[in-house]
Amino acid sequence: MITSKPRRASAPKQKTMTKPRKATAPKLNKEKVTVSIDAELLSLVDSFVRGADGAESRSSVFERSLRLWKRQARKERADAYYKENAAALNDPEWRAVTTESAGRIFEIEA
Q1: Which residues have a Cβ under 8 Å from the Cβ of 49 and sit 6 or more positions away?
Q2: Which of 24, 26, 21, 18 is closest to 58 using CA atoms?
Q3: pLDDT tens digits, one per residue of 60-103
Q4: Which of 34, 62, 77, 108 is 20 to 30 A distant from 22 in Cα terms?
């Protein structure tokens, strides 16, 4: 004769509160780095992250900052280039070449 133990009634499972996950960008070719940074600047980053309610991370703040720095550096290089070559813009030969090229590009008769 086979007998089985009676099952005990289990208590209903309680729902546990979990922290919402931070929104993260897809990891596309990311590198992990270590940097030393001024404590005051890091404090500013951390304050910003805390105020972003999980929408930002330290990494995302640094990435965005580096992208802004890159854009600004590119603009400064372009400005320096055009400032350096401003005299060429007043050269009649250069003006004729660029006017002709622009005409072909935009199909305008000069």
Answers
A1: 56, 57, 58, 61
A2: 24
A3: 999 999 999 999 999 999 889 888 887 877 888 888 888 888 88
A4: 34
Q: 33-45 as b/e, with b when 16 or more CB fall inside 10 Å?
A: eeeeeeeeeeeeb
**CA 77 – CA 10 distance, rounded (Å):** 71
CB-based contact 55:24 (threshold 8 Å):
no
Find where tokens 């703040």 sit: 61
Quote the tokens at residue 6: 């009676």
The length of the chain, given as a count of residues: 110
71 and 65 Cβ atoms separated by less than 8 Å: no
Q: Give the count of alpha carbons within 13 A of 39, CB side only.
A: 0
Contact 46, 58 (CB under 8 A): yes
**Spatial separation of the C-alpha atoms in residues 16 and 53, rounded to whole Å:** 21
Q: How far apart are CA 90 and CA 85, in angstroms?
A: 10
